[in-house]
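Below is the data:
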Amino acid sequence: MAFEQSVAWWCYAREDIDELDLIETCKAIGYTGLEMVPVEKFQLVRDQGMKIATHMLHVPLPQGISHTKYWDGIKRQSEASLKLAVDWEIPYLIAFSGNREGLDDARGAENAIMHLEQLARAAESAGIVLILELLNSKVNHPDYQCDRTDWGVQVVSAVNSPNARLLYDIYHMQVMEGDVIQTIRDNHQWFAHYHTAGVPGRHELDETQELNYGAICRAIAETGFSNYVGQEFTPTGDWKAALQQAYDVCKVD
């Protein structure tokens, strides 16, 4: 079965884009889910026959599971997020390592494993998958700890739960380390979700950027992946044309 495609809401939360038009356009193109939708918009999305693919497990992003000092707040948020995910049939909740704040990577991994193990038990009971997001610390998220595939794999593999996996953000990992297709082939069993965007700039998946998304998505499909590949880029031109073009280049028959 081919994977599904989704769209990140925040990329299109602009005054010149009508929310209902966005949802209807995504559905007409072939997208089946929207991601990181504001809670007050959940019903609007569902009323149009679209799924809510992801939501945040906790915020803010810089304060994550690598630190014990944020644990109480994350645990409280996660309980509410898991209930929300069950009620609205959201399959994936996004977790963050947070920033290093001087914490070395080995200790950060130990803390992240300890905390994610506890979160994963609750996620298993709820039938929800937690996805720890890989982000770049070079351009967009300075000091973020889960900024390399090997660190993320170290954490989720140690947790040893089918409900603790990685969100492999292709844009972010191209910025940090490249070698995207081989990384997917070598580590796909730990990747439960993918995000896209053009490099450089985080814009359209067109000829102005360096990644070959057709080849990347074929590599993803070859692993047997059947979850979501989410479009998370900000369009610089016609947003409807950009969403259509991205869908087409990522579609694998």
About this structure: The chain has a mean pLDDT of 97.
